Structure formats: structure tokens, C-alpha cells
Amino acid sequence: MKKLLNLILVIFITACMSSCGKDSYFKCFLYLKNSTGHNVYVEESSVNLATIFVEELNRIVIGETDRHIGEDYPPETFVTEKLQNIRIYREINDTIQELPRYYYDNTDDFTLKTDFFMGIYEIYYCLNITDEMFEE
């Protein structure tokens, strides 16, 4: 029994080490917090991706791309292209208010958080949406 456990442990460690040395991929997310007094909606090409309720956090997948050894972040062009198809808005008294694009049209607009597990690099583009952002 002890030999079997040792064999399983060796296989697991070998799998972990080999996955760290190979190319992997980035999984990119929008991580949005709704700090407004109304629900916020996120759409991509007129398809509702999420409804973010008041004071709620929501994680939205924006895409995956290959990662090559030595890269810490996905290509900026990949993320910017994905963001061009995203629309963030809210509805107040039958009036739609869109979040101005300059709040989320490139990667510099976000706070970045990263996570890594078994060859997958998760990149979170974090944005806190406030009432003031809609008033401009």
C-alpha cells in the first residue's frame, strides 16, 4: 500500500512539474463591482453576459489566449479587441445610461489581479463602477 501511495505521489509531482515548464494559456476575466444604486448590465454583441446587482461583484469571461514561456500577461491587443465588443450600461426610469468607453477601452483602465494553477494563468481586469462614472 505504501509503495502505491509513493507511486501516486511521484506521478502527481511529475505532472505538476511538467505542466509548469510547458506553454500554457491565459484565461481573461472582467471582474466588475457595481457600486451604484442601480443594476448594471454587461453585453457582448447584444447578448446579455451578466446583470450585476447593487454592491455585487461579478466575474465575466472575456476570452482565452495562448501563453508562451516568459510571458506574464496576455497580449494587450487581444484584450483590447475583446473589450471593443463589450457594452456596460444601466437603466433608470426607462432611460439607458451607457458607461463611457474610456473607462474600459484598454488594459490601463483596470486594476490587474493574477492567479496561476496548473498551467492556467487567470488574469482579472478589475473595475469598480460608480454613479459618478455615468454622470460624465
What does this 3D model show about the protein?
The chain is α+β, with helices and mostly antiparallel strands and 136 residues long. 24% of the residues lie in helices and 46% in strands. It has helices spanning 2-21, 76-83, 131-134, and strands at 24-35, 40-44, 47-52, 57-67, 86-92, 95-98, 111-117, 120-130. A 4-stranded mixed sheet has the order 4-1-8-7. The chain has a 4-stranded antiparallel sheet with strand order 3-2-5-6, with no helix packed on it. A hairpin with a 2-residue loop joins strand 5 (86-92) and strand 6. The termini are far apart. The relative contact order is 0.22. The mean pLDDT is 84.
Stretches where pLDDT is under 50 for at least 5 consecutive residues are: none
Report how far apart the termini are.
Answer: 68 Å
Structure class: alpha+beta
Portion in helices: 10-25%
Per DSSP, the total helix count is 3
Strand content: over 45%
Compile the SSE list and pairings.
Blueprint: H1 2-21, E1 24-35, E2 40-44, E3 47-52, E4 57-67, H2 76-83, E5 86-92, E6 95-98, E7 111-117, E8 120-130, H3 131-134
Parallel strand pairs: 1-8
Antiparallel strand pairs: 1-4, 2-3, 2-5, 5-6, 7-8
